[in-house]
Amino acid sequence: MRTLRTVAELKAALAQPRREGRRIGLVPTMGALHEGHLSLMRRARSECDEVVVSLFVNPTQFNERSDLDAYPRDEARDAVAAADEHVDYLFAPTTEEIYPDGFATTISVAGITETLEGAHRGRQHFDGVTTVVSKLFNIVTPDVAYFGQKDAQQTVVIKRLVRDLNIPVQIEVCPTVREPSGLAMSSRNAHLSDAERERATALHQALATAQVIVAAGESDVATILSAAAAELEDPQVRVEYLEIVNPETLEPITSVDRPALALVAAWIGQTRLIDNQLLSVPTSSRPPVAAGSNTRSD
Ligand code: AMP
Q1: What angle do CA 247, 248, 249 make, to 5 degrees?
Q2: Residue nearest to atom 12 of ligand 1 (CA)
């Protein structure tokens, strides 16, 4: 594996493989790699000829300077982990390489960035994400890019970005990797004490409860949410949002009669965590397809 720091070096390294028509896969990360990131790399490795992992803690997607400063960083360890997954290139640029003096452009997706994470972190969070991801797509020009379902809204936003701007990249979304306790793996879990780590499993429990209730035939969102919220009733857990939405538009829904997306964000002490779960609906409770109609019900 080669670690490259500049756009020019990376472009030069990929020129020959691209001429040869080799399939290039990109896994964007902010480092502090864990099994979730590694699962994306493994998927990329199994589907692509050249695998590029980017490691860049993107300052523009952080709301608070203190959050940016506290973000865990260990490039040496990350390089070993990526090399173990047979990654070809680790692209680890400096902030100045990505945002040189005079940088003045923002890529902004409207609407779907204004709810959920956007409502709580501010839309500039996603502006930071879509701008840096657009840059990475232009720098690497991958055939395929891999993202985690863990950041569900981010995947919806990036798919919209790619569609709206006709960016020639295939987006693949990989399942959330969890601890045995159900806690979704996250670089931010490093900030949790043992007691907080235990408490943090409530996020997954709330989502799992929602799925159990839906599987049992409940479709009323208010009822599902109140059962899920009960799992989060703990004075040490501060819920920012718990919502059930349309998985494509992220618009709130009132009834789960087709696959839906449940999302939660909560503070455990000083650490903000997010998680989500696609809710699948028992076949019997899906709305019937009208006779003679060829409209899909799902
Ligand atoms: P980050 O370094 O947090 O920006 O994450 C880089 C990529 O890894 C994003 O596409 C995330 O959605 C993905 N990711 C983070 N945590 C997980 C996880 N537990 N399971 C699967 N993918 C993840």
Answers
A1: 105
A2: 148
**Going by C-beta distance under 8 Å and a sequence separation of 6 or more, which residues neighbour residue 129?**
58, 61, 154, 157, 158
DSSP line for 80-142: HHHHHTT-SEEE---HHHHS-TT--------STTSSTHHHHH-HHHHHHHHHHHHHHHHHH--
Number of helices and strands (H, E) in the chain?
Answer: 11, 9
125 in catalytic set? no
Task: Render pLDDT for 144-194 as a digit per residue (tens, 0 to 9).
Answer: 999 999 999 999 999 999 999 999 999 999 999 999 999 999 999 999 999
- Cα–Cα dist 132/138, whole Å: 10
Residue 293: how many other CB atoms lie within 10 Å:
9
Q: Integer distance in angstroms from the first to the last C-alpha of the chain?
A: 43
The CA R_g of the chain, rounded to the nearest whole Å, is 20
Q: How far away, in angstroms, is 292 Cα from ligand 1 center?
A: 43
4/132 Cα distance (integer angstroms):
17
pTM > 0.90: yes or no: yes
Measured CA to CA in angstroms, residue 104 lies from 47, 100, 107, 132, 193 at distances of 36, 9, 10, 13, 40
Beta strands in 163-298 (DSSP E): 170-174, 237-245, 260-268, 271-279
Q: What is the pLDDT of residues 54-68, one digit of tens each?
A: 999 999 999 899 999
Among 54, 150, 273, the mutation site with the greatest number of ligand 1 atoms within 8 A of its Cβ is 150
Instruction: Provide the phi-psi class of 32: left if phi over 0, else alpha when psi is between -120 and 50, else beta.
Output: left
